[in-house]
């Protein structure tokens, strides 16, 4: 759950040798702290294992910008040499500002605007993942306007019920993403693409969901997508060169869970691709993946300060301790959105006090503003204590809001004993900046 440069000694949590209390004093709370070395290591591990398994047919590891992106992280991606997938014009702007080469950018989204498509084509992105029939016409028009032949992928729905929460499962039939293989929508979309000489159909893509453990679902998706590729080969006399199997590889949030590592799943995915190649008499395609959460999620933690503590007597006469911190659903929406689970520790001291049933909550005017519904915390937890929650790198800061007009927390990168701001804390001036006075 904790990144590799986090240590816990005598009750003191430290990141790259800097104690939590020192981090809180310098940067305040709530704050996201990212272990830069761990981020780079995880990204490289995926890139290296993809190359190790697929050799010359290894495609690109595309980091999913939606999990968390800022200019500094985009610079790390450019340094490492992997790619990035973006799904809005804003994410594309950050990737370009960070120096990512457009040839390493893949554009997603189920409702890309005409302006977003035009910008993507104009800067020369590697590929645009087509998600609707309307997009085929829009991308073709933009390519014609800029005098280029734009690489595209078709996002397919392989009809897989991924074993994850409904709101992050994306490959079953009744979903807003992609074209269904089973219904024939995918083939109709392919035929529409081939009518436009401005479009270079590079291959097929799918994303089966998030927080997926094991490789079985990806293996099934591989077979179904490559079966579709075989149909294209039989109809058009040539093979589509690329296969993008998305991401969704899970990470540990609580005790008992284990983060999926590249070596846990890529050998099985490689074997599945080999088996499909043999089954359908296809050449090995160029294989790409899109791990986002799995790269950044384990590399960040959130540091809060306790503001109040309250004992609440339950119906069965037991007591639940409500521990309120200075953040909440504005910096971690996942528990409220889909019952995501986290753990937490007191970060600046040890305690010998007995543990008690507790609920870690935020400061917002919502009963559902709960970070951790049930957790055992020391009974002497008190205002002023620092509380750290691990594995908040994915969808914490990226989903952050200004609910109750709370400024969004900063992101601090820590490496080799040095900490620096990569996203500054918002202030009240930021909150007022967009208001227009009469």
Write the layout of secondary structure elements.
Layout lengths: L5 E4 L2 E4 L2 E2 H8 L3 E5 H19 L3 E7 L6 H10 L2 E4 L2 H9 L7 E3 L6 H10 L3 E4 L2 H14 L3 E8 L21 E2 L4 H9 L5 E7 L10 H21 L5 E3 L17 H19 L5 E4 L3 H4 L3 E14 L5 E7 L8 H5 L6 E2 L8 E7 L8 E9 L7 E5 L20 E5 L2 E6 L4 H5 L6
Parallel strand pairs: 4-20, 5-6, 5-13, 6-7, 7-8, 8-9, 9-10, 9-11, 11-12, 12-13, 15-17
Antiparallel strand pairs: 1-2, 2-3, 4-14, 14-15, 14-19, 16-19, 17-18, 20-21
Number of helices: 12
Helix content: 25-40%
- Summarize the main sheet: 9 strands, mixed
Number of beta-strand segments? 21
Beta-strand residue percentage: 25-35%
Mean pLDDT: 95
What is the gyration radius calculated from CA atoms? 23 Å
CATH T-level topology of the largest domain: TIM Barrel
Q: Mind telling me which CATH architecture of the largest domain this is? A: Alpha-Beta Barrel
* Uncertain parts: 163-172
Multimer state: single chain
CATH superfamily of the largest domain: Alanine racemase
Word description of this protein:
The protein is α/β, with parallel strands linked by helices and 438 residues long. The protein folds into 2 domains: 6-35 and 298-432, Lyase, Ornithine Decarboxylase, Chain A, domain 1; 108-291, TIM Barrel (Alpha-Beta Barrel), CATH 3.20.20. 30% of the residues lie in helices and 26% in strands. It is built from 12 helices and 21 strands. The chain has helices spanning 20-27, 36-54, 71-80, 89-97, 114-123, 133-146, 185-193, 216-236, 262-280, 293-296, 334-338, 428-432; strands at 6-9, 12-15, 18-19, 31-35, 58-64, 83-86, 105-107, 127-130, 150-157, 179-180, 199-205, 242-244, 286-289, 300-313, 319-325, 345-346, 355-361, 370-378, 386-390, 411-415, 418-423. Strands 4, 14, 15, 16, 17, 18, 19, 20 and 21 form a 9-stranded mixed sheet that branches. An 8-stranded parallel barrel has the order 5-6-7-8-9-11-12-13, surrounded by 7 helices. Strands 1-2-3 form a 3-stranded antiparallel sheet. β12, α9 (262-280) and β13 (286-289) form a beta-alpha-beta unit. The chain is globular, with a radius of gyration of 23 Å. The N and C termini lie far apart (50 Å).
